[in-house]
Amino acid sequence: MTTAHRDGPHPPAGTAPGAVVTLGETMALLTTPAQGRVTAGSALPVGIGGAESNVAIGLARLGVPATWISRVGDDALGTYVIREIRAEGVQVVAHRDDTAPTGLMLKELRGGLPRRIRYYRSGSAASHLSAADVDEAAVAAADVLHLTGITPALGPGPLAAVEHAIATARSSGTLVSFDVNYRATLWPRSEAAPVLTRLASLADLLFAGPAEAALLLGTDEPRHEPADVETGAALARKLARLGPGTVVVKLGALGALALRHGETHRAPARPVTVVDAVGAGDAFVAGYLSGVVGGAPVADCLSTGNLLGAAVCAAPGDWEGLPTREELAARSDDEEVIR
Question: What is the superkingdom listed in this entry's lineage (predicted)?
């Protein structure tokens, strides 16, 4: 059944950026030595990573006010996570949980390149998220509430937090942005599909890749990226029937496209030598949303998203390569990403 949805705020171009609120888990991140083996005396650098905080940091670096809502453990890693996110200029609303630890993930390298990400988040503080953790005033005052399909996978409490945040946003006129971001390691397709489809139907702006589109549409998962842009456009049209006013399909090497008011817009991918692709999707979302709150045309939102995605791919880390507004301007020509 198709549900009509608004497209959300699109202020005139040139107005000051508005605020984006995110909700989700951020974990401490350990990275193995370049060869991947951990031995006695190995140094494992400590960082942070989380889809929603990645987006918030990307926005903050572009001068867009951003708030991150979550829970962390009352431990050294929780303190570190909060400090790092605040240092990037993001407003942090994170309860300290003295009954559960901060989540942890391990990035395993092979030949100096990321090979596998392992998560240690079962029973983490963020898995105890609930509707009570949602800062209703922040959501109501925001231009955009951005959520991902990772948070509801953490358990019934986090799902309730997501649903409450959406209800708050919709009652206050805040645009709801939803990135499917399906993680097979967190829940099976059979369990995830109905939940993610329902949440997607409540969104005003939906982000998905081809495999995630197949999950929502109940079709077979594609083995490869779409061979052409029209395949991606067809997916966008089908996803739009769920209700979102704008559907953005990320097409990897083909770039990205958006369907809004029945009109399809496309921006090609930026040329880049990939160093670490983890976090590229979050960077794309941050770039796109920066355009949304600034009133930019859809095509410009896509182009900015592609620029940020390429920038993150060109540097190690989940978010460290995110550019500032000044750096973005230097990358906005047709040359390769500066690295």
Answer: Bacteria
pLDDT band at 18 (very low <50, low <70, confident <90, very high): low
In contact, 216 and 192? CB cutoff 8 Å: no
CA distance between the termini of the chain: 47
Which residues are identified as catalytic?
282
Residue in the block written with tokens 């029945």:
262
Residue type, 116: R
This prediction's pTM: 0.90
Architecture of the domain delimited by 20-330:
3-Layer(aba) Sandwich (3.40)
Question: Could you report the per-residue pLDDT of 101-123, keeping only the tens digit for each?
Answer: 999 999 998 887 788 889 999 99
Query: How is 151-193 classified by DSSP, letter by letter?
Result: GGGG-HHHHHHHHHHHHHHHHHTPEEEEE----TTTS-HHHHH
3-state secondary structure of 240: helix
Burial of 25 (0-12, 13-18, 19+ CB in 10 A): buried
